[in-house]
Write a structure and sequence with these properties.
Blueprint lengths: L1 E4 L4 E3 L8 E4 L2 E4 L3 E4 L2 E4 L11 E9 L3 E5 L6 E4 L12 E9 L5 E9 L3 E4 L5 H5 L4 H10 L2 E4 L4 E5 L4 H13 L6 H11 L12
Parallel strand pairs: 9-11
Antiparallel strand pairs: 1-5, 2-4, 3-4, 5-6, 7-8, 7-10, 8-9, 10-11, 12-14, 13-14
């Protein structure tokens, strides 16, 4: 059974600790707009809140003596400390890194940052990012294999696509995932779409 739930709406008359919910007096409530499906809660709208360990894709916007400001699709910039980076970045560089720390105002410290080659940045709603990745990166692997593109997904909603693969197909497939993120059998739908539009997924996909 499926239904749409608004923030604060009762989801289950028991404690079911899943993302984007909270428990109170033995019940579970929604914190964002989403869809209830059996024992799952699928967010339809969500604001990304960075936490330690998140992967992020960003754009260097300012070079300072102490490091680099990085635009992360957030209210505040990220920052790469030059003391902890072996790479010298320049303004406009695309980067992929991991959140090391988030301060009280939301500024994100990034470590393990590497420069990405020229490519295309796609903005994916935060609530749809888990579907682009899939369980154990299943959907991401299908995208990479089926299109031949290099793809890095940031939890902040920026997805970098590059390499010598079928870029138009990769862009169209990610758009399809965004549009159908709430549906069942998405892995099979995506694999079929790739195979029918010039790509090739050789390994039979499994439902994520």
């Amino acid at each position: 059974m499926e239904k749409i739930a608004v923030p604060g709406e009762l989801l289950w008359e028991k404690e079911n600790r899943v993302p984007n919910t909270y428990c109170e007096n033995g019940n579970t409530y929604a914190t964002v707009l989403g869809m209830v499906r059996d024992e799952r809660f699928i967010p339809l709208e969500m604001v990304f809140k960075p936490k330690t360990g998140d992967n992020v894709v960003g754009i260097v916007t300012n070079v300072r003596h102490s490091g680099y400001n990085v635009e992360l699709n957030l209210p505040y910039d990220g920052f790469i400390n030059s003391k902890f980076s072996r790479i010298t970045f320049k303004q406009g560089d695309l980067v992929y890194g991991r959140v090391k720390f988030v301060d009280e105002v939301g500024t994100v410290d990034i470590n393990d940052a590497k420069r990405l080659p020229n490519g295309k940045i796609v903005d994916v709603p935060a609530s749809k990012v888990p579907r682009v990745i899939g369980k154990k990166s299943s959907m991401l692997n299908i995208l990479r294999e089926g299109t031949g593109c290099s793809i890095f997904v940031g939890n902040n909603g920026y997805v970098w696509i590059g390499g010598k693969g079928n870029l138009p197909l990769a862009l169209k497939t990610i758009k399809l995932i965004i549009e159908k993120a709430h549906t069942r059998g998405l892995t099979d739908t995506v694999a079929q779409y790739i195979n029918e539009n010039g790509g090739e997924v050789t390994v039979p996909p499994k439902e994520e």
